[in-house]
Amino acid sequence: MRTLAIIGSGDLGQQIAHFAISDNHYEKVVFFDDFTQEKSVGGFSIIGKSSDVEQKFKENRFDELIIAIGYNHMSTRTNIYKRFKDEIPFGRIIHSTTHVDVTAKIAEGVVIYPACVIDAYVEIEANVLINIGSLVAHHSIVGAHSFLSPRVAIAGFSKIGQCCILGINSTIIDNIKIKENSKLGAGAVVIKNLNESGLYVGNPVRFIRAHDSI
User: Fold this and answer.
1) Beta bridge partners of 148
2) Are residues 100 and 194 in the same domain?
3) Is residue 62 located within the same domain as residue 117?
4) What CATH code is carried by the domain that includes residue 50?
């Protein structure tokens, strides 16, 4: 039996656990969580904190790891991945209702929710989460540790930098580059390159504030 360990037992972690089991990716799920004293959630055991991950792996308590830390804590999400990437094998969940072209490349630690489309020659880098109904069109790249909200649409030949947050229903036209550590608000429409890290909102997007003040 393959067991998935998830870091983070909140709503996001419980969603991922549900997909892991209901969509037949894993037979069992366990959690690690630094911020609860509970021993279980949603019928899944919480077997320790992030400091326990390596020891529990040595004890064969799980096979692969996924990080379920959301967009409010992007640096934590990134740092935890970097902490374990050479020590623990990362899993990958691509929901069975999602279309992934045979030419696409999906890295470790990625979670892709239902009803997404990952088009030809797309690259999804490590530790990315792509939420329900999103589209990444041909020859585009989504940088590591990024978070795509539901119904994001990325047109062809675009490049999303690392640690970006794309808000619900945001749209990126073709041949666009978005700098790392950028955040798009809900319904944002990007029609030119975003060369400064920070928060952008509107249609077309306008710069609101720098990354350090988000």
Assistant:
1) 130, 166
2) yes
3) no
4) 3.40.50.20
Give 137-158 pLDDT, tens digit per residue: 999 999 999 999 999 999 999 9
Nearest to 96 by CA among 24, 196, 47: 24
pTM of the model: 0.96
C-alpha 116/C-alpha 108 separation (Å) is 18
**Can you give the residue range of the structural domain that contains 19?**
3-84
Strands 123-124 and 165-166, sheet pairing:
unpaired
Which tokens is 2 given? Answer: 């393959």
> Is the Cβ–Cβ distance between 125 and 143 less than 8 Å?
yes
**Residue 186's CATH number:** 2.160.10.10
